[in-house]
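In response to the reviewer comment on reproducibility (Comment 2.3), we provide here a single inverse folding case reported in full, input and output, so that an independent group could reproduce the run without further information from us. The structure tokens appear first.
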């Protein structure tokens, strides 16, 4: 189950670098408050693919980290399956904005991390192989991350996350740093993976086309302090196509406009 409710979420960071060392005056020790998320309320249904868009620095990663329990909210609540989030959980797996494979482990060992608790080792090896094949990395099991291309590293991260069989997969810009064609291919793979496993996926992207071609729901955040600019359900069949779905094209223009781009190609 991966039902998420966010109510009146607020997050502010205190910029501690502004603190004066050794100062006795209390007001000089407080630091500047940076309001990042400002009263965000959302609800995501079980099994949905949610795509979060917003300008750089607006608080997308912060929001994802709070949903996944890696960071705490200043106020407001996050409920997953009706229970408040109190910290990271193996039911909710996070794929980070920057590569997070362990460089001293092979692809197989990285994927094995999520399955090492399994007692039946034959069963475990079979599952590892299944996830490696799902992301088309068979033949590369014994390679180290530095021996893989950027796209292959991203796929290995995906296999490692999927192997844990989480209820919710949080992905922070999983396609960043990939070349154009690899990005398109990875996008297709994530859509296929989502249709296959049917789990809730919350994905942050800066790419409007990712959101339109992948999402069951699109969330757009404003500039910081981020508030909700748009939260819309998308009911278009997949694979999606701008030429065959003119409404999708209209929504694309609307999204660019909301994001402050008046002329998009
Ligand atoms: N640990 C922290 N301490 C203080 N400020 C922080 C911290 N983490 C993030 N911030 C600030 O919060 C704001 C939002 O950061 P965040 O990483 O969530 O943005 P983002 O929308 O993910 O940006 P990008 O699209 O560039 O990844 C930024 O202004 C950042 O400086
Ligand atoms: Mg980010």
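Designed residues, in position order:
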């Amino acid at each position: 189950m991966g039902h998420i409710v966010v109510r009146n979420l607020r997050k502010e960071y205190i910029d501690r670098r502004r603190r004066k060392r050794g100062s006795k005056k209390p007001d000089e020790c407080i630091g500047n408050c940076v309001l990042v998320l400002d009263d965000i309320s959302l609800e995501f249904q079980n099994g949905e693919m949610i795509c979060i868009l917003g300008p750089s620095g607006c608080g997308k990663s912060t929001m994802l980290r709070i949903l996944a329990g890696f960071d705490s909210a200043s106020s407001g609540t996050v409920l997953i399956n009706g229970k408040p989030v109190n910290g990271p959980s193996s039911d909710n797996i996070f794929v980070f904005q920057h590569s997070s494979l362990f460089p001293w482990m092979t692809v197989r060992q990285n994927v094995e991390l999520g399955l090492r608790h399994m007692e039946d080792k034959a069963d475990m090896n079979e599952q590892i192989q299944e996830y490696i094949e799902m992301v088309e990395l068979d033949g590369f099991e014994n390679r180290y991350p530095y021996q893989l291309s950027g796209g292959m590293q991203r796929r290995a991260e995906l296999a490692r996350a999927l192997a844990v069989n989480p209820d919710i997969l949080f992905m922070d810009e999983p396609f960043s740093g990939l070349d154009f064609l690899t990005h398109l291919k990875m996008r297709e793979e994530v859509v296929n993976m989502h249709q296959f496993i049917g789990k809730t996926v919350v994905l942050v992207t800066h790419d409007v086309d990712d959101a339109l071609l992948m999402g069951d729901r699109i969330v757009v955040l404003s500039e910081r302090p981020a508030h909700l600019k748009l939260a819309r359900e998308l009911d278009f069949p997949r694979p999606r196509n701008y030429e065959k779905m003119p409404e999708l094209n209209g929504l694309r223009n609307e999204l660019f406009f909301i994001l402050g781009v008046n002329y998009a190609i």
